[in-house]
Design goal:
This protein is α/β, with parallel strands linked by helices and 149 residues long. It has 5 helices and 6 strands, in the order βαβαβαβαββα. It has a 6-stranded mixed sheet, with helices on one face. The radius of gyration is 14 Å and the shape is globular. GO terms for molecular function: antioxidant activity; isomerase activity; oxidoreductase activity.
Length: 149
Amino acid sequence: MKLRAPMPELEGATEWLNGEVKKEDLIGNKPTLIHFWSVSCGLCKEAMPNVNEFRDEYNDELNVIAVHMPRSEKDLDLDKVKEVAKEHDIKQPIFVDNKHALTDAFENQYVPAYYVFDEEGNLRHFQAGGGGMKMLRKRVNRVLGKNEK
């Protein structure tokens, strides 16, 4: 996905956990962070406390959506996804992408991966990998129009 590209429709979920969200719910009110993760991804689990802290800190200013991207047959187990989501305090809506509908729409190949969209729904930042939360924070603050701390 190229920078400034519009957010794809949030369609094709095998299931939604913690509430369903549509693209139109996200556009026009505040920026959105969409993060891809997988139950079989150790880096994702290590990064989750940072994502949750981020979600809670920016609660009123940022939409946060999780996308579960299975990497193997074992990752398709919905009960396992629910268990890991609960274990790691993932309270935000989770798009379970067992058919890779959203993964393909985003042309995403990585977990964890982070996509920051502005309030008009245009991609402003992408990064992949477990680290880099400082960079993610900088980009989110820029999209929010906040000065750096």
